[in-house]
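Can you please make up a protein's amino acid sequence together with its fold in token form to help me picture the idea?
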Amino acid sequence: MSSPIYKIVPASLWQKARETGTFVGSLVDLTDGFIHFSTATQTIETAARHFKGQKDLILVAVDEEKLGDTVIYEPSRGGDLFPHLYGTLPMEAVIWERPLPLGDDGLHVFPEMEA
């Protein structure tokens, strides 16, 4: 298995995905036409930039290999290549999901991630 890719999702939205068996994306994903993911090294900055101060988030680790050629690495902030999923995320590709709480300092507390 290759290194996982990661998605930060509001818990309520992730619960809907669990119920249906497929994650179709958040509002920004639907607007952009793909589901935004991050690598392990990009995830902390993604949380700080796009989810600052937000509670009730879930961090989802996904097996990129199970998504086939629907994942394309494209330049984003600073020219860094980010994984984008052009399609829906089936629950079968999810390795694990964990809460992403806020610490006392207001920053998200991450579980151990595989790079």
Summary: The chain has a mean pLDDT of 93. The domain at 5-99 is CATH 3.20.170.20 (ADP-ribosylation fold). The first strand starts at residue 5 and ends at 10.
